[in-house]
Specification:
Blueprint: H1 6-27, H2 33-39, H3 47-50, H4 54-79, H5 84-95, H6 98-101, H7 109-119, H8 125-141, H9 149-164, H10 169-182
Length: about 200
């Protein structure tokens, strides 16, 4: 079999990073290298041609996940024509939705990677990217009255509890209660709570 071109090697590397970012959010960073490469449609043997170690891939995948989150925040703000309060409301409603609860692979890396990052020593790129991403998210959620930390903590805690109680009516109740707590005005409807 012939050598892979530099362009193809770079495309393969990007595919591994993107797929790892999804798998780590869905299953945690304990996913094996063999399973990561299989999910990316590549052979296990090619991993070490692309990455120095699994930890190096975790660093890149976490950084990638937070890059996606930053893009999502920018897009949400753009969709609301720069109206920050409306963009925040939309994001909070989507964050505390059944759809987000049920799709950690493409969801928020703050929630999906919290346990793995809590176990991390804190001196690797993944931990730094996570901490910076959390800080950026709190700033995005900030209002004139608060710094956004309490909002993110409420959202994160509610999402984690909703995922942990997914097969129970409590799951939807947790999401609904958190949305109501973060709503500046009473909500007249909650359209996607179906457990």
């Amino acid at each position: 079999m012939g050598r892979v071109s530099q362009a193809q090697a770079q495309a393969n590397r990007q595919r591994v990073v993107e797929r790892a970012s999804q798998l780590f959010r869905e299953q945690g960073t304990g996913v094996s290298v063999a399973d990561l490469m299989k999910a990316a449609g590549l052979t296990h043997g090619g991993f070490y041609k692309q990455f120095a170690s699994k930890e190096a891939l975790i660093d890149e995948a976490v950084t990638h996940a937070f890059g996606e989150l930053a893009e999502f925040h920018a897009t949400t703000l753009e969709e609301h024509e720069g109206r920050r309060v409306e963009a925040q409301r939309s994001l909070i409603d989507g964050y505390l939705s059944v759809r987000h609860r049920d799709d950690p692979a493409s969801g928020c890396p703050v929630a999906a990677l919290a346990t793995d990052m809590a176990r991390d020593s804190g001196d690797r790129g993944a931990h730094r990217a996570y901490a910076e991403g959390v800080q950026d998210f709190t700033q995005w959620l900030a209002t004139d009255d608060e710094d956004g930390i309490a909002r993110l903590c409420t959202m994160l805690g509610a999402l984690l509890l909703a995922r942990a109680t997914k097969n129970s009516p409590l799951s939807g109740q947790v999401l609904s209660a958190a949305r109501a707590a973060l709503s500046p005005t009473p909500q007249n409807h909650v359209s996607d709570i179906h457990c």
